[in-house]
């Protein structure tokens, strides 16, 4: 069988004839429960529509413009209700899928069969997402009333539904990934809603900020608007201008949803697979590529001369994954073993020795990407390179130091979770809290020169407003080198301790 | 054929399995004996490709558990020491799901499901919900699940734990039948009489080390080099003991109370008969004369120390 035919067969099995999907379909649609749920859902939607109609018609005479506004308001409310439904239902349906299987201890039965984790996870995702999508489709008769009465066009409605579907895919995939990590269903649900809240706030804030910042003409809007569940009225018909091409935003939103769901599925798959699995390698490569692409995007969008801060800020959210890639422990069945401190091969395989090189790879991706982005926007590649290198040294020092803390915590305790928690706490104390403090000082000071951030010099490269680029460079270089030295010392000590553990007693 | 060579599993200093090696052929029913924590489940999970060995290999009909896990999975049926059932499914739906997972073509599935239900005597429960089945039935359903793809090898981890005597007897018969069907069956247990009934090969594991493996008779002979004969007298026990100790090929005589003596004997069956004849001829009144056969329990107790890790 050729490679293409094999690939097609595997995808057909995963997406079209997935046994897991069929099984969930049977249990999801069994009995009166779904009928009752859908009936209630439709009753609320239709009841709301009827109420609106009754209120509007009771007003008697109304100008066409007012009626148009009312109908648009009705459509907006319906779409916001659907957005709320997606935000509430998608994580609820997905968060417990894997964790409940783990509690039932049925995962072993499945993974002793010839199925890949991809096959299984895709099946689970389709099962969860299908339910959300069915709820969306069921509401179509209500939204179609808006089209008939004139509050929206079919294009608006279909674009809105496409966008909500994409948001559903993103939220479902995130909840699925968290479900593989969680130990209890309750924690999976809590974390999923927390992540959903973050996504909703991020898309909403970014959409508002970028829409305001761009102030472009016509329907040209940042595509993030389409991924905000409560912004569908504005998102309808919006496009993004790339060069001479106008790309509808729902296309970009769909593409983003696919990319996010892919990396989430790879993450989930990596958690369920043994070390060195293809899924882990693919996840790591995807991480590097995404970092580069995001950096190019941000660099070209800002196009400013502040390239030196781009890769520091872009890499900042990495803290969400740093404890996972840098800490190791002996308390899990999987092999988290001290296998050296620096191995480029391990960076892709996913063992602890790959933690530092992988972090450096991400940083390199951010550095190169942001410079390329700025270069595309301003035709000036690597502006102020000598100054940039000072800030790059600082970024290297910072991440190496955080890596060393993770290694140190791992060598002190057997449990990987303890090490991860300690590293995260350290990050909070060492970076997040001082960052917030400095941020407030910088924001509320009219004369930056008055701020004396000496005790927090190690954070200064994150706050370029407080210091001109050239003046901040020596400090960044000095602090970068200092943190690098500290990282090497702590990392070396941790490696020695991990290689010579205290003997563990037999139980 | 299953060929396990020097299989090891190391949890950073804790050696759960240490160099386990054995070979099994179609039709072998292999009893894997060991205390709790001896390394049975770890070995079985490695064979089921759920755990990666630290070192060593195992191949099933040429497929390596590390290099070609998917091919190994196609050939095995794994039943862990827990059920992992889906309560909200019917019995046939549960089997249909696993038939799908094992890529049994949809057209063949109804027939396959009927066959495995018949084999496990669950045909009448075809439409019942899994949660309504008794524990014994659920166990048989788990076994039926392992059989939907007609595997060459079955890995059964503590299959009889928690079953009542009837369910246990039915399961034993079923496992023996699977052996007769030409499948390699690996059954782990620490309940020895249960294994002795239907296993033709056993392996004894302690602290991750396989202390002995092979056909049951061979292993018993290995640990019991000499015959052990128990003689019960109506009277004159100590005197008889003195008398027997002077007979040829008698290695040791141990009086057991005033009427019983146990002798270690290096001779053959004819010599054994001659001992009885001599005793009777010399006026000793013998009420019982029998050779004591060691069983799996004796073997296990003699080989192991009871230590776990």
Sum this structure up briefly:
Chain A is mainly α. Chain A has helices spanning 3-15, 19-28, 33-58, 64-94, 97-104, 107-111, 117-138, 140-149, 154-181, 185-214, 232-235, 249-272, 278-302, 307-314, 322-326, 344-349, 355-378, 385-412, 416-443, 469-499; strands at 239-242, 245-248. Chain A is built from 20 helices and 2 strands.
What are the salient characteristics of this protein?
heterodimer, A: 507 residues, mainly alpha, 20 helices, globular, B: 309 residues, alpha/beta, Rossmann fold, Alpha-Beta Plaits, six-stranded mixed beta sheet, four-stranded antiparallel beta sheet, elongated
Structural account:
The complex is a heterodimer of chains A (507) and B (309). Chain A is globular. Chain A has a domain at 1-53 and 65-189 and 254-271. With 507 residues, chain A is mainly alpha-helical. In chain A, α4 runs parallel beside α9 (154-181) and α12 (249-272) runs antiparallel to α13 (278-302). In chain A, 72% of the residues lie in helices and 2% in strands. The mean pLDDT of chain A is 83. A two-stranded antiparallel sheet of chain A has the order 1-2. With 309 residues, chain B is of the alpha/beta class. Chain B has 2 domains: 2-214, 3-Layer(aba) Sandwich (Rossmann fold); 225-293, Alpha-Beta Plaits (2-Layer Sandwich), CATH 3.30.70. Chain B has helices spanning 40-47, 69-75, 91-101, 109-119, 135-147, 165-180, 192-196, 216-223, 237-245, 269-281, 296-303; strands spanning 2-11, 14-24, 29-33, 55-60, 63-64, 76-79, 153-157, 184-189, 201-206, 209-215, 227-233, 250-256, 260-265, 286-291. In chain B, strands 6-7-8-3-9-10 form a 6-stranded mixed β-sheet. Chain B has a 4-stranded antiparallel β-sheet with strand order 2-1-4-5, with helices on one face. The mean pLDDT of chain B is 88. The chains are: A mainly alpha (507), B alpha/beta (309). Chains A and B meet through α2 and α6 of A and α2 and α3 of B.
